[in-house]
Design goal:
Blueprint (H helix, E strand, L loop, with lengths): L10 H14 L3 E7 L14 E6 L5 H8 L4 H11 L3
Antiparallel strand pairs: 1-2
Length: about 80
């Protein structure tokens, strides 16, 4: 069952954008990609599995939403690219 939308065809090309953001984020200690996409096995039911270890108390997702407060189009575009509903 596909909950949201299928992954974009170019999902592998979008991952460096995620890596760049996480590398620059001061509260991210480390992050890693796992699951089918990490193993190169993408199917119609695939999703993006990213584990993020952040400093104590950090809410990376909420901070990213706050980055786009008032910039609805940009947040919607990022959510669509990353498969976030």
């Amino acid at each position: 069952m596909i909950k949201f939308e299928r992954l974009p065809e170019n999902i592998s090309h979008l991952l460096p954008n995620v890596r760049e953001y996480l590398n620059k984020h001061p509260k991210v200690v480390f992050a890693y990609l796992f699951g089918g996409l990490a193993r190169g096995r993408v199917s119609p039911l695939s999703d993006v599995d990213i584990a993020i270890y952040a400093v104590d108390g950090a809410d990376i997702v909420q901070e990213r939403k706050d980055d786009f407060q008032g910039e609805g189009k940009e947040w919607d575009k990022l959510k669509k690219e990353l498969g976030i509903k």
